[in-house]
Amino acid sequence: MRVSTILDYIDNGHMALPEFQRGYVWNRDQVRGLMLSLYKQHPVGSLLVWSTESKDADFRGDGTLAPGIVKLLLDGQQRITSLYGLIRGKAPEFFDGDVNAFTGLFFNIDSEEFSFYMPKKMAGDPMWVDVTKVMQDGIGPHVTALGTDPVHAPNLAHFVNRLNKIESIKNIEFHIEDVTGKDKTVDVVVDIFNQVNSGGTKLSKGDLALAKICAEWPEARGTMRKALDDWKKAEYNFELDWLLRNVNTIATGEARFSALHTIESEAFKQSLDQAVKICNYLLDLISARFGLDHDRVLFGRYAFPVLTHYIGRVGGSISDEADIRKLLFWYLHSALWGKFSGSTESIINKDLEVLEDVDGGLDRLIEDLVLWRGDLTVKPDHFGGWSRGARFYPFLYLLTRTGDSKDWGLGIPLKKGLLGKNTSLEVHHIFPKAQLKKFGYDKAQINAVANFCFLTKNTNLKISDRKPEDYFKEIEDKFPGALSSQWIPMDRSLWTIDKYPQFLHERRKLLAAAANTLLDSLHIVAPAATSTNIQQVNDAPATVAISVNSGITTDEEEQAIQKLRSWMKEQGLPAGYMEYELTDGDYDEVTVVLDVAWPEGVQQGLSQPVAVLLDEGAEVYRIAGEKGFRYFTVIDDFKKYVMREVLGEHYFGLPEWANDVDGKMIPLLDYLLARQVSRPVCGYEFQSENGEVIGELELAWPEKKIGVWTQRGNELNINTRLQGWLVYDMQEVLENPDLLNFALEK
After folding, report:
1. What 3-state class would DSSP assign to 597?
2. Is 542 domain-assigned?
3. Phi, psi at residue 69, to the nearest 5°?
4. In-domain check, residue 540
5. What residue numbers bound the domain in which 385 lies?
6. Do 663 and 637 share a domain, yes or no?
7. Are both 678 and 633 inside the same structural domain?
8. What is the pTM (predicted TM-score) of this model?
């Protein structure tokens, strides 16, 4: 069937997308690759459709189906959606994704290159044509313009041929395989869909598991999205797979999504409703008891599937206060020690096995936690991490919201119930960053968790970058006890910057004691299993002991990362995971938090894991590298990687004059531009003494008589010597760019 006919089928309701299909996930590179293959008439695969009665068909979108037999697209959604968007100039009715992935594709009729619109590169250049306009308006306007242009008219025949090849993509035939017959029930078709798509554009395990459910209950995905949207409004950001995992443990008692394949839609619907209610119950409980009231401080979220399973089996809520405390004790310790930071499915399944007999289940969960972890005592060194990515950062927030911590500007308790509805807390550096930096402390020391406290916004602004030795006395005089309520050592000799390491050491001891008091108030583990006596901890030397974690440390970093994630979405690519945690070492003691990461690659399953790490230490880089991550320390460098290596925009980030340079020279141009060398002449014609053109230099600095060319021969070599020129071979300077840089600096 021709592409144009397929699109007509979509418009008139004879072809649609089954409800169990996921949304559009392709990025610009995949769209460009499809168009290049079609332009070159390379095979791009067949389509698989399910022919069924329209009255029985559950389909995506707000359109209507034609009466009679309709074709539901099982395999080929990404390709057909891309072509529809490029040819029609809009998304189809069933679309669910990012239109930027196929919006603004241009074609260069000279170089035969597909690229998405870049004003500096394409504006005013008749060689670049809008693919969608060619599809909709035909080639006539371009032929007329080129035919009257004296520069391009001589090559008009070539250009017309290439424009025709673009327009004729609409006439390319797709082979269609049809799944038909009364025996092809929804279950059979979903099995076919899952088998086919397991080898195509990578589907998550959750997507595959949802396919059968959505086939029987078309509203499933939308119902789940509504729950996720409701949580987002409450400032909790959860992924669909996370919610599905909670549903799964309720419906099947299993963590693995494959268990959902045997669940009927009605049972799934009931389990989803129950999972949402229980998750809301848990969020309310954790927020009310611990003040963990937004996404940034909600740690241990993969403990939820275990808890939803347990609470579902005991009736949807817990009335016994002792059991509530045990549940919260287990949750906090699971979060603190990173219990679910490894192989999540297997760890959840092990806990579900412990809960097979629900009676005494919480006690057995705690016993198993002790066997896994050993000593559950919080020690001062556990507060030795740094940055907001440290595992004990949310716990510091928790201590602030649950204890008697007071604001230093208002003197009021910082418990959630005692603050205004719209009042939020900000991180305050007790010893100001600027002052510590002047004193020679490094980033890890400056952003130590023990140097953080939480205050209202106005108080944080009012204190600004004043030294503790100046503002602590004022606070204590005005609000006695406010400092100690935030675990500030009251030995005034420690309030000076030269005693900063000792201050941190003493504050960590106070924080650890407060942590153990809180945890012991929830549940006491038998002394034979673990000790909770904080006094047993050795009084370590007063040094700034920093465990490796890091992550986003400042508001400026967070804003930069958020802007980058928005930029990624604009490119039709996944935004990445903020503060992605890696584990290193036994019991996940040492963690590394990556500012933003793509653990499955920017193109999931097709490229290596990547991360952006802003202003981190050597250990963070080491562990990220050992874990297989390619990392970037400058956002612009990461953008170059995305545009050049992922999306194929090879000249991205270069000045306009560089577009005429051989693509192999791009690494050299990056090197030279970073060193702010003077602009070279591109395509410099090298002349002999009598004015004869004997060669062309790719790059040249005539005033210095220095150049680079791609194929230097003996004749040119002799002439350059005679005229005093220094000409490098391209390969020579690519391998050692310092040669050229040193020559230009002379």
Report:
1. strand
2. no
3. -80, 130
4. no
5. 381-525
6. no
7. no
8. 0.65
**Structural domain ending residue among the three candidates 594, 627, 646:** 646
Confidence band (pLDDT; 50, 70, 90) for 538?
very low
What pLDDT, on the 0 to 100 scale, is given for residue 423?
Answer: 56
Same domain, yes or no: 359 and 235 = yes
Q: Is there a domain that residue 543 lies in?
A: no
Distance CA 462, CA 466 (A): 9
Sign of the dihedral through C-alpha 512, 517, 518, 524: positive
C-beta of residue 61 within 8 angstroms of C-beta of residue 94: yes
Identify the top-confidence range among 308-312, 442-446, 638-642, 672-676. Answer: 308-312
SS3 per-residue string spanning 645-706: HHCCCCCCCCCHHHHHCCHHHHHHHHHHHHCCCCCCEEEEEEECCCCCEEEEEEEEECCCCE
Do residues 282 and 316 both lie within one domain?
yes
For residue 695, what are the contacts with CB-CB under 8 A and spacing of at least 6?
Answer: 685, 686, 709, 712, 713, 716
Number of domains in the chain: 5
Q: What is the largest CA-CA distance in the chain?
A: 100
Domain assignment present for residue 465? The answer is yes
| Residues contacting 196, CB < 8 A, separation 6+ | 48, 74, 75
Residues 512 and 496 in one domain: yes
Q: What is the pLDDT of residues 45-84, one digit of tens each?
A: 889 888 888 887 778 777 888 899 989 888 888 999 999 9
Cα four-point dihedral sign 236, 237, 240, 245: negative
Q: Does an H or E element contain 116, and which?
A: strand 113-116
What is the distance between the alpha carbons of residues 85 and 91, in angstroms, rounded to a whole number?
A: 5
Residue at which a domain ends, from 579, 612, 646: 646
Do 350 and 259 lie in one domain? The reply is: yes
Please name the residue ranges forming H helices in 168-256.
186-197, 205-216, 220-233, 240-252
